[in-house]
Amino acid sequence: MRDDEGRRGKGLEGASLIERAAERLYKDRKGTGPASGSGSHAHRKKPDGAAVFSSTEGSESSQHVHIDLDALAAHGYLTPKSMRSQLAEEMRLIKRTVVQTFWFQEVDRANLIMVSSAFPGEGKSFVSLNLAISLACEVDFHVLLVDADFERPVIFDRLGLGRGPGLMDLLKNPDLDMSEIIMRTNIDRLSVIGPGSRDDMSTELLASQRMQQIAQEMADRYPDRLIIFDTPPLLSCSEPAVLAELMGQAVFVVEADSTQKEAIEKAVELVPSTCKLGLVLNKSTPGLGDKHYPYYGYRGYRDVEDDHPATEKR
Fold this sequence. Notes:
Elements: H1 5-8, H2 15-29, E1 64-65, H3 69-74, H4 86-103, E2 112-117, H5 124-136, E3 142-147, H6 154-159, H7 167-172, E4 183-185, E5 190-193, H8 202-206, H9 209-221, E6 225-230, H10 239-244, E7 249-255, H11 261-268, E8 276-282, E9 296-298
């Protein structure tokens, strides 16, 4: 893990610091953003342009990839065969509120979910992949996992899929169809999209009308599909802040006893108030008698005094 002690300063001592940061942000923004469930992204104009999906819904089935589930499990990840494990229970706690927000459509584009952190090494890709697999095990959803960390595509590396055409290529090539980059996996109801080729103009491409169109079509095309974007850390580059403008939900991963409170606040401020924000405390050590569950709560969704100690150690 990268040593960021110089930047992070004194580490978190527990979930209470996160709660205070979230509460302070909520109070600062209360009354300034659209009310929950009132079409909070209504100001977004759906961009015009050619469709990025082919007219044949099943066309994405032309690409199949095989994930080595045994290797994934050996590295500590969730698989469909380990849904009665402690990790599975932790992911259920996280996904519960994500699913509720989607079902009740509390925000626009509630099925577009980004997972990020303040700094590298806090476990956001671990959470992204496990959350995607956990959601794919639900009978009601299909999941599309997008590795949008263009410089460090941890998810595709972990899945052993290598680097091929992906999101960045779709942005650069208007003739490329979404179905040409979607890969169906041997995990039922889970498909993936890779980061694609590197580009020095990645931030500008993500801020383009084409990306807005892609995000809108992703949100509208399949009502039963949840799309998870694993993004770079919010304080490492400008790309995740641009992507956050297109998301309906954001899962923010915090490394326990390491990430400075001020860094959390600075990173969370980059997520627009129209995006439902959840916080996950990762890598914490449970005390004697503590429940072995991660802290997870939404800004403005739950009472910040309702504490859940976090103990996910990846």
